[in-house]
Amino acid sequence: MTGAIVQDAPATGETTNRNNKYVYFFAEGKADGHGQMKDELGGKGAGLAEMTNAGLPVPPGFTISTRACRLYFDNNSTLPDSLEQEVREAVARLEQVTGQKLGSPENPLLVSVRSGAKFSMPGMMDTVLNLGLNDETVKTLAAKTSNPRFAYDCYRRFIQMFGNVVLEIPKGDFDEIFEGVKKKKKVHLDTDLTAEDLQAVIAGYKKLVQKKTGKPFPQDGHEQLVMARNAVFRSWYNPRAAHYRRMNNISESLGTAVNVQTMVFGNLGNTSGTGVGFTRNPSTGEKEFYGEFLMNAQGEDVVAGIRTPVPIAELEKEMPAVYNQLRETTTRLEQHYKDVQDFEFTIQEGKLFMLQTRNGKRTGKAAVKVAVDMVEEGLITKAEALQRVEPAQLDQWLHPVLDEKQGLKVIAKGLPASPGAAVGHIVFTADEAVKQGKKGPVILVRAETVPDDIHGMEAAAGILTARGGMTSHAAVVGRGMGKCCVVGCTSITVDEKNKRMLVDGKAMKEGEWISLDGSTGRVFLGKAHTVDPDPTSGVFAKFMSWADEVRRLGVRANADIPRDAQVARRFGAQGIGLCRTEHMFFAADRLPHVQAMIMAETEKDRRKSLAKLLPMQRADFAGLFRAMEGLPVIIRLLDPPLHEFLPKREELMVEVALLKQKSPRSPKVKEKEKILARVEQLHELNPMLGLRGCRLGITYPEITEMQARAIFEAAVKVTNEGKKVIPEIMVPLVGSRQELALQKQIVDRVATEVFEKAGTKVTYLVGTMIEVPRAALVANEIAAEAEFFSFGTNDLTQTTFGFSRDDSGKFLEPYVNQGILQQDPFATLDRSGVGALVRMATEKGREARPGLEVGICGEHGGDPSSVEFCHQVGLDYVSCSPYRVPIARLAAAQAVLTESAGEKGRTL
Amino acid sequence: MTGAIVQDAPATGETTNRNNKYVYFFAEGKADGHGQMKDELGGKGAGLAEMTNAGLPVPPGFTISTRACRLYFDNNSTLPDSLEQEVREAVARLEQVTGQKLGSPENPLLVSVRSGAKFSMPGMMDTVLNLGLNDETVKTLAAKTSNPRFAYDCYRRFIQMFGNVVLEIPKGDFDEIFEGVKKKKKVHLDTDLTAEDLQAVIAGYKKLVQKKTGKPFPQDGHEQLVMARNAVFRSWYNPRAAHYRRMNNISESLGTAVNVQTMVFGNLGNTSGTGVGFTRNPSTGEKEFYGEFLMNAQGEDVVAGIRTPVPIAELEKEMPAVYNQLRETTTRLEQHYKDVQDFEFTIQEGKLFMLQTRNGKRTGKAAVKVAVDMVEEGLITKAEALQRVEPAQLDQWLHPVLDEKQGLKVIAKGLPASPGAAVGHIVFTADEAVKQGKKGPVILVRAETVPDDIHGMEAAAGILTARGGMTSHAAVVGRGMGKCCVVGCTSITVDEKNKRMLVDGKAMKEGEWISLDGSTGRVFLGKAHTVDPDPTSGVFAKFMSWADEVRRLGVRANADIPRDAQVARRFGAQGIGLCRTEHMFFAADRLPHVQAMIMAETEKDRRKSLAKLLPMQRADFAGLFRAMEGLPVIIRLLDPPLHEFLPKREELMVEVALLKQKSPRSPKVKEKEKILARVEQLHELNPMLGLRGCRLGITYPEITEMQARAIFEAAVKVTNEGKKVIPEIMVPLVGSRQELALQKQIVDRVATEVFEKAGTKVTYLVGTMIEVPRAALVANEIAAEAEFFSFGTNDLTQTTFGFSRDDSGKFLEPYVNQGILQQDPFATLDRSGVGALVRMATEKGREARPGLEVGICGEHGGDPSSVEFCHQVGLDYVSCSPYRVPIARLAAAQAVLTESAGEKGRTL
Q1: Which terminus of chain B is more solvent-facing, meaning fewer CB atoms within 10 Å of its CB: N or C?
Q2: Catalytic residue, candidates A69, A154, A425, A473
Q3: In this structure, are residues A64 and A32 in contact, taking their beta carbons and an 8 Å threshold?
Q4: Backbone CA torsion sign across A467, A468, A474, A480
Q5: Which of A806, A810, A763, A756 shows the shortest CA–CA distance to A787?
Q6: CA B438 to CA B456: how far, in whole Å?
């Protein structure tokens, strides 16, 4: 059920077609196929078969299977003769059932030809309606319906649709002819055209077809059918569909089925009509019959928006019998499928036909509500309920969301880095965000954010960056703060200096209103309303408690400050899996001391600055320990390269050069040059692979010492307040046993000193991140020292692929688009590469130290597919940003259910 | 034998001491131990036992084993009682054999107490001579020798040595007293002091000991012995010894043995003397009796340099019988050990004593000469000969070397990045190197080199950089060019602007002479002479041919241009394992086109510039193919990030800022800003993990296309000249199958086009680098596309460790010094981490494609220990810089010999 898994080629059991059957007939209460055959028949075809078998009123027809589609592409865009024969036999059978004949002027059979893949891809592929009409049969239709206008309208629509879909003539060419006739007749509405006018349109259309294709419009029904069918097959590869598949991880190898079905007409007069509906409200999940319809209309009239559809309740008044039949039918369908049904129906001269039913798409809010309701109605089990909600959908319960009804203009689209909605005035610097943020909500817009921007990000309602990917600084920090964030919005150019940004060439200035939708990446012009859902509501809490009953994986949160820890705990976190101490270093009251520490030339001077940081760090940790009373708190020692705390090298270089050119003797030159000299010393070509992580603590042991002291003094303090404290100290970027051993020695020594002095002992663990490949490869050696492992899969992904997450945006998107990668490995854990290392390290680590605590604290900890993998590998917990905790809890439960379904499968 | 392997703890067989014996006696033609017991007795102890057993005149004594040393440290710096008892028994036995008694005034036993580890560590640990002397025994010695001056000189030397080594009193304190007496007596030479004067010195020394230790100088011989023995044990850990071990990869866990041996005196008059010698010339390898001696002297007199020793030939005249005995003895020793012997002897009153013998250290030139001679003398087998030469020593046959006799001043020391000697004027920029290089030899001195410097590096005689490690740009390029190069010389500060450098605070200007020794990393002040050895000499060629008979691994070379390829072929390369095409891009006639290509905004413009590069690349490849006729040539597609070809971002930023401040309206501002904009676009935070390797070819397929076209057109051309061409095209930085598949498609398509047009077909392979961990983890998938693998272990080491090779200098040195890493993983392949990936990828690759060609082209391809690993893993070849080819050939042969020795060991 987790959306991030590639929706892959059909399972073997179903593809093995024993009798070489490609075409599945359905009519008169009996279908060749059934509802479980989505792989073979597509979702729509399986639904039609199922409905037919259930005795529901379905227009008869047949489904050409997805296998035929694959065969079509494998076979040089043709079908083998035997299959063509099978199709012709199905047509003959349909003619027999209906008593009509394709292309026959006496009693013509008219059909629709529709795509229908395994997974619903609404509107992405092509459809041809009214197939079977030609210059002769149109007359029959006119006579039989006593409605020439209707018949000629059907025919001109057919030519237009066929011409566009099958013959690939641009829509505009047809519109031109149509508008020409309207102009000539001086009418305004399509419906004002008479049957004669439409015949003129048809003549124009046919001339267009002759001109564009060199051939007359095909009159033979069978020829029409073959051409339309092949066009529907081909539409599997149109760019729209390809894009949709990529977005939804649907495998390209599936192909689409084609459904050929007898036409029914909702536009045969005032006892005819057409409509769509849901068995429950897809937006809220409320149990209410939900939908709309139009009398005397075809489906496309509803879509075209020329006439406004009427709420379905109205149907009860107009045609009570049909209404009751529809309610009864759809209720049966919901009971049958045990899920909300999204259905289409047509009424032809008082008779109800069901054209389609499928499980209804719904919002995250509705998904949870429906799942819980259905359990309470006894319709599904709790396990089924848990599998009915995409974990990512839970987001909608946690963040304020945009009120979509407003219809604001979308001016740009980036990556949905951190969900929720944000509305505010544009600002371009962190300082300005703090300043303006006091007066009203602001959106911080940056080319990219840097650690220096933290205060501005905190002050802003939302963050928008032109560069960076899903794990860029802005994205990670945004998610950590639970703050709406859109990144990598490449169509925006930020001109910080002139306090403006260019969006598609149009300038927007500081102070203008924009709105962000962090769940879709959309950027809106103007001020949107937001809606603030209640994450502690009864339904949500109940649903999550079911997940907790099922899951084996623990869920912790990545949180650096007490406030985040509290949020995480409220969302169900069972501890802190990662506290990044460096985030504490960037605070305004600390940074000067951190910088002084870095500028110090001797250990003694370094220790002086560290001594000033000690009480602040101690207070930070005490706060965290209090917030997480009774739960484990993993604190990572200082990780980033030191130059991150100093001004940027290139900016300093420019500053010094300008100063020197202008006033070479200014004392400021010397001062700046001194800073620049240190920055130069610390400068690295590839800081991600440089002096950071435990390499810092080994080079400057006094930093580790100070941090260990702060942790243990805080632990003692909070313990003495009567609260249980479980500190776990994590050494970052370890690649060999000896690194960890040296850092552990310091930590243990400081612990002994602090505990002896205080007369209080606190039990603690010392462990390590596994975040470079070597650590995984020698995990058995490292486990001899480490009391726990935590996979830093962000860094591990960087080094395993050799992808810098700060820079990979440039090539990762084309990589995903060209199918080189199935997904962004920074968002979803790469199972075959990075995952192999995770598995190896877990096994080797536990071999050396049975019972070793193993978790993950990379961004993947909040991604459902990655959580499933962590479950499979046997990790003890995942840790993610606070707002992702519920997602991880559900994903962990689903992993158990998927696993046991697989086991059951194997048992049978 | 390969020096880079860690010389590790003793083999199990030898450490298992069955009868719990710690002390090994030797006297009168019979020793408890023997020559094979180096693990237990150390090199010196094993040699003494062996010589005793061989009936040679060795002063009797005993060896306290290395196990006792380890026990001493494990046991809180004491020995257990049982072991002390064993030592006392050995002393008693020695007293019995000599008829003397330790500390006895009647017939005192005097002994030396010397260190002796498994591997020779000359001068690194401590020694005490004349032990057993005290206020009484000195009188006996004076009487017995009738030489009071000699006796008191022995005693004062003993107190001084014991005081310094055992009691840790600074040497200077003793010297002060000694000089005080000399001054008082107004004498200039030590030898001018009388016995009485020396007694005054002794009195002063004893007072010093009382003052410094609070106790009188120990008079008891047994107490002296225990104290001296423990001090020798402790000297295992002195900083000098620790440093030597690290330099020579000797394991710290070995410990040292202690040899207690009866003193013999070479200073008992004119029939006494002492000397050292070699059975063959250790510098040239010539078979000549080689050494020096001094009559009436002790060993330290030779070392002290007060008297000039006499060539050993003189001894024949002075004491022909002794000379003949010495020649006969040492010849027997050489026959016995089957290797050049480095021996020490003492003549006491006409009687020859052998004090030590060991295999003599020798130069690379001598090593080869001796090995070949000994095979021809029938003394050793070819296999033994191959194991007698350290592969790295072969360097001395390949590069001009410094004439060491000159005695120039060493002003700095860096890393020996590329061997050989270089002498020249200092220059600080590449352009200056080219300009000045035309007038005379120059040394290019840079903070670090960049690809832009290539022309200057080529023009220079040698390269010296202040920053960078063994695989920095300067080092790699230097080795590639076979050019002497010293890098990471941190005591130098380069002040490019003022055309000077600071060496320990002293400034040196452009134009001054310096000399580099690329084999040791030393930098000399002034102009050294160099010696140019002949690498094609008969002895060398013969020796290498033996290596080729034995080895299984192929050896190829990394070479980018025909000249390098020719050199490589002369050195025995069996193909090109890596041609880096980007090096061709930096040439002055190409760079403008490369830059235009990068600045191009459309594919069309890019193709225009590429079209200009095509004929140049084609000519490059044709040259390579001709040079390597009949041998495979692996050409790697463009690899480095594009910004490497553009000016540096920060320099442009400064330039633009200065221009704007000065003349904002200058047209130059616009022009520079345009370049800066593109540089900004290409800017990456971690370029090593960015848009490079095949990511370039995937983003800009037209680059791959142009390169493939150049390769195939060149291949066709050279084939048509009647030469066999074997091109192998290598796609860099692949991490997944699809990347390679996409690039391979382009290459194959271009090949077909070129071959069809030319009517000539050339067989070629398409393969990939394995240089990111993921490639190794999914090697089976990649092998489905790849026709060969080549491990890029430089990059693979970077990503496996998460170490940037450009930046790791800052922490790698402390890492090695603190024992976190045994060696620089960029110099010697890390077997447990990177090696595990190499092994995994090889196995997985061959599983998917049996017979897959697998090689290595990282810098490790020329490192003997890494070559051994490649042999063990079963690679097909190693590829290294041309000047390392002979080293790799020998290392590959040694790997076979080590392996079959191991197998023989298992069989027995």
Answers
A1: C
A2: A473
A3: no
A4: positive
A5: A763
A6: 11
Angle at A490 between CA A488 and CA A491, to 5 degrees: 140
The β-bridge partners of B880 are B557
* A774 has a chain B CB within 8 A of its CB: yes
Residue A664 touches chain B, beta carbons under 8 Å: no
- Position A11 confidence tier, pLDDT thresholds 50, 70, 90: very low
Alpha carbon A424 to its chain's center: 25
Q: What is the DSSP letter of A250?
A: B
Least Cα distance to A486 among A449, A530, A434, A437 occurs for: A449
Spatial neighbors of A288 by CB under 8 A, at least 6 apart, are A280, A281
Question: What is A791-813 written as a DSSP string?
Answer: E-HHHHHHHHHT--TTTTHHHHH
Tokens, residue B868: 């051994």
Which residue, chain included where needed, has tokens 């739960």?
A631
Report helix angle A591-599 to A667-682, nearest 10.
80
CB A479 within 8 A of CB A883: yes
B685–A778 C-beta distance less than 8 A = no
SS3 at position B639: coil
Q: Are B225 and B102 in contact (CB under 8 A)?
A: yes
Pairing status of strand A401-402 against strand B530-531: unpaired
With beta carbons less than 8 A apart as the criterion, state whether B514 and B508 touch. Answer: yes
The set of residues, in sequence order, having a beta carbon less than 8 Å from that of A529 and lying 6+ positions away, is A402, A403, A406, A423
The CA distance from A547 to A387, in Å, is: 10
Residues 6+ positions from A500 with CB-CB distance below 8 Å: A428, A507, A508, A509, A510
Which residue of A676, A695, A769, A817 is the best one to mutate when testing the B interface, meaning the one whose CB has the most B CBs within 10 A?
A: A695
Instruction: Please write down the long-range contacts of B715-721, taking CB distance under 8 Å and 24 or more positions apart.
Output: B715/B621, B715/B625, B715/B762, B715/B764, B716/B754, B716/B755, B716/B758, B716/B760, B716/B762, B717/B618, B717/B622, B718/B622, B718/B625, B718/B626, B718/B629, B719/B760, B719/B762, B720/B758, B720/B760, B721/B626
HSE-up of residue B700 (Cα within 13 Å, Cβ side): 25
Q: What are residue B186's DSSP bridge partners?
A: none
Cβ-based burial of A665 (10 A; exposed 0-12, middle 13-18, buried ≥19): exposed
Q: Which of residues 340-369 of A touch B (CB under 8 A)?
A: none
What crossing angle do the helices spanning A649-662 and B649-662 adopt, rounded to 10°? 30
Q: What is the dihedral of CA A75, A77, A80, A85, to 10 degrees?
A: 160
> Searching chain B, which residue's CA lies closest to the CA of residue A683?
B807
CA distance A213 to A169: 9
Mean pLDDT by runs of 10 across the 908 residues of chain B is 39 47 94 92 92 93 95 90 94 95 92 92 84 95 89 94 94 92 87 90 96 95 95 90 77 92 89 90 83 80 60 90 94 92 91 89 85 96 95 82 80 83 93 91 91 84 84 72 83 89 89 90 90 73 95 97 90 96 85 91 92 95 97 96 89 92 89 89 90 94 97 98 98 96 97 97 97 98 98 96 87 82 92 97 98 94 96 97 94 95 60
Q: Is B660 on the interface with A (CB under 8 A)?
A: no
Judging contacts by C-beta atoms under 8 Å, the chain A residues touching residue B774 are 800-802, 830, 833-834
Please give the biggest Cα pair distance in chain B: 104
CB atoms within 10 A of CB B191: 11
Packing angle of the helix pair A81-98, A221-234 (nearest 10 deg)? 120
Residue keyed to tokens 């600055």: A609
Tokens representing residue A423 in the block: 């509305």
